[in-house]
Here is the input.
Amino acid sequence: MKNVKTLNRSASLIKRAVGAGCGECQASCQSACKTSCTVANQKCARLTKKTDK
Amino acid sequence: MTSCVHTFKCCGQRVALDVPSGAVHVLSEIAYEILQRIAPPLEPECPTSLRYQLAKYESSDVAEAYGELYALYKEGLLFSEDQEYKMPPTGVVKSMCLHVSHDCNMRCRYCFAGAGGYTRDRKLMSLEVGKKALDFLFEKSGNIHNLEVDMFGGEPLLNFDVVRELVAYGRARERELGKKIAFTITTNGALLDDETIDFINAEFSNVVLSIDGRKEVNDRMRTFVDGSGTYDAILPKFKKLVERRGERDWYVRGTFTRENLDFASDVIALADAGFDQISVEPVVLDESDPLAIRSEDLPRIFKEYERLAREMIRRYREGRPFNFFHFMVDLDDGPCVYKRCKGCGSGSEYVAVTPDGDIFPCHQFVEFMPMKMGNVLDGTFDKDLQKKFAEHGIMTNPVCRECWAKYFCGGGCAANNYKYNGAVNTPYEITCELERKRVECALAIKAAIAQYEEQNSK
Ligand code: SF4
Ligand code: SF4
Here is the structure.
């Protein structure tokens, strides 16, 4: 498309709700902040396992 | 629930985020202008009124851009419907911040832990309390396999023998129970030597190294007990640890205050010192403290975040990228939507345990006695309070529900909310504004990089 480039066409939070919520992922404040919340920089434990070398 | 598209400009990029689907679109000028003027439901034909409003562009160009936006709308990637995500509280605790030392060998001016002692006496955690805390975690973790324990303080290396024994104890019990603990540690570095470095690198899946950036900034804030600066003492140790660390996670982590609102220079100084995994965060202090961030500082801080984002884009193009924790975002995968809704999990899935064995909702709540949840020695644990904390999240919070950044933020910091607004569930506006700006910068970086890669591949 000329006017719009979609960065994540395949991603949809709505689709990712199916079968999700296993609770195996890291608590966000444990990673590197300890003073504030952000969840979007966390990894999904299931997806990481699949892609980990 | 409503649908919402957030459009913004940042770092020379025009971006639209479709909040419910998480789709991120980089826009031409015309598409950006159109998005300011349309709302769902969209008609297949470009409205005549739009062509009038945007008469400065060729009518056919407006129609073409509209057509592209309409196609995304039909695909569910623009003006998509938001949904209700509900997950009943599980009662599981899976992460723990273990305050192995309420004592510190530094006197950092902004320390929320009050030189390690929090509001009480300085104290080290005994091995017995530590073991009981790990037992509590194993017991409360239900069917969850992946557990986390962060060795925290004060300065945890002041109690290194106990740390080492607790790791051994955790390893033995995890085998017995078929679980896995990811140990992490946050250290000021003063006591790092070859032995501790090798132990940390072998056993800890993440390590957070506290340093503030430029030497003069670090040494003004982070001093030894005698008031002397710590930079020269810790830098070589951090470098050594990182060199020997291999592929495992680590971060250098600094704090900025009102005294260094030009903190992008500190992030860049850390990158120039050879660190490429960096986190530098706003200080958490009572508004009355002279170092605390005030709302009048926000425009300045926004500019700084943007300056940092531009520098990161530049360095990416030059082939020497670095990561800034709060600009990291995985647009394709990332956490599932439930994680995004429940946020940090403090007081529900995540707790902190003090040297006395007291349980608090998280490290930032430690020694706020009304928030004490129980004690690992006497086996008490306030399940009602845990349930209340489990309700904290974006779906239960009217302010968060309407916020475009909600699926990135997760509902803010319960501790900040409690400290500043007196309620776990009332977002603290300054941190919200910062969070939203960081998300914009993160998306703008993604947009700029995608553009660069596309040009490069031609
Ligand atoms: S930025 Fe503030 S309002 Fe938005 S989701 Fe986070 S805490 Fe809630
Ligand atoms: S309440 Fe705040 S400090 Fe505590 S775990 Fe949550 S985000 Fe982190």
